[in-house]
Design goal:
PH_domain-containing_F; Znf_FYVE_PHD; phosphatidylinositol binding; globular; two-stranded antiparallel sheet; metal-binding
Length: 249
Amino acid sequence: MVDRLANSEANTRRINIVENCFGAAGQPLTIPGRVLIGEGVLTKLCRKKPKARQFFLFNDILVYGNIVIQKKKYNKQHIIPLENVTIDSIKDEGDLRNGWLIKTPTKSFAVYAATATEKSEWMNHINKCVTDLLSKSGKTPSNEHAAVWVPDSEATICMRCQKAKFTPVNRRHHCRKCGFVVCGPCSEKRFLLPSQSSKPVRICDFCYDLLSTGDLATCQPTRSDSYSQSLKSPLNDVSDDDDDDDSSD
């Protein structure tokens, strides 16, 4: 089915429409063999609050962006190669339902669909695209993925020292290795994580010590591990580590 659509005029028109919605700031999306599988609005769990994002699933990439005018204009385009993607289902938590993790070596995050059926369809299509890509390339699935950041709202105190309270002065930071919300004194060190950045990035003291001794796995918690150590209560919405989707995430 995908092979038949690859060179069809209908597929080309659909991809051109997506390109036009992102405008000149977006990357060209039309290449030989690329097929637009589906699209829809998903709720992305950003660092400060959940936000609606427009997602487009192609047979080789996943594209998403901010919604400016629904079905007409999007910005802040992100392109994720599917061969680096793994996905995991998330249990429902309060108002956050029908979710799953999108994990890549560069960035990992949670998204939520409007219904269980929509979640199932998205996950099935993504898994099939990834499987087909890896089968054609002969590559193995990626075992390395960036940590899912714990949202700011999940931590009123530092998740490492368990003492420092966050205020407009004592601001929140995120460890790029474990995803924990930590205070400044607990995250003063930098470490080179080549899959995330060409420059050393902020990590917590705990992860720095483990990385320095070569223990790469111990400081990589699952999303549920991170959440179990956080405190769920109201917060002052302050942080100087902006999510890279936009300056407000």
